Amino acid sequence: MAYQRDENPKRRIHTTKPVDKAREKELIFGLQPLLEALRAGTEIDKIMVYREQSFAEVIQLANEREIPVQRVPMEKLNNITGKNHQGVIAFMSAIRYVSLHNVLADIYERGEVPLLLLLDRITDVRNFGAIARTAECMGVHALVVPMRGAAQINSDALKTSSGALNHLPVCRENNLIDTVQYLQDSGVQVVVCTEKAAQVTSNIDFTTPTAIVMGSEEDGVSIDVIRRANMAVKIPMTGKVASLNVSVAAGMIIYEAARQRG
After folding, report:
1. Distance, CA of 110 to CA of 89 (rounded, Å)
2. What confidence tens digit (pLDDT) does each residue in 54-93 have?
């Protein structure tokens, strides 16, 4: 049984919303366990803290490791776990993130042509897992996700990817605009996939170093990223439905890149 808390953090009110026991295994809750995990370098996806308390040491350690922190009401924490969380909950990542700088350097050192996939605010775990599966199968070197507003990489994502996330590097970057600029400075063309583009995928040369950007399920790639990218392309469609699921669209444009690369 989950709990809901009022103004007094120590007072608990029962609700009927069940707690996901399987998901609780992916959590760290309680102040001391979380602090120890942060000090030990445990891979953490994000942290939620009760918004009425400071948790200064947690915030400091999280900032040092560039882990997103959300300040939320007590009810939100109680709906995640019925355990004694003391106002702090961390979501463990199923993978270990890697540095984009190191990944790109390794690709060039191996004499390969980079093919990267940037995911702009894709929040659905199953979409993320499906994209990762296709990307790994088709030779994408790495996924790049934003620090905030991205799907949590948990057991569901791992399962949906059919284990691809165990083999495909994932880079978590603080700012996608800066990431686009860094890639361009590193000789990588950045191609945004959007139905609003004039050019189609077959007109683009994917045999050069390329980073493909796929956008959120709600509103696609952000305007700022589109403006900063080298070009925007669309997947040609002849049917009456005007859009594709993002994981399907990602598969189609990745296939075009792989086809051109032989």
Report:
1. 41
2. 999 999 999 998 888 999 999 999 999 888 999 999 998 8
Strand pairing class (3-5; 210-215) = unpaired
Tokens of 122: 């894709």
For residue 14, list its beta bridge partners: 3
210, HSE (Cβ side, Cα atoms, 13 Å): 23
55: alpha, beta or left? (left if phi > 0; alpha if psi -120 to 50):
left
Q: In whole angstroms, what is the distance from residue 89 CA to residue 126 CA?
A: 23
User: Which parts of the chain have pLDDT scores under 50?
Assistant: 1-19, 22
* Sole residue written with tokens 């284990």: 163
Match 């399907």 to its residue by tokens. 248
Phi, psi (deg, nearest 5) at residue 153: -90, 90
Q: Mind listing the pLDDT tens digit for each residue in 209-221?
A: 999 999 988 888 9
**Chain Cα centroid distance, residue 236:** 27
148 Cβ partners below 8 Å, 6+ apart?
68
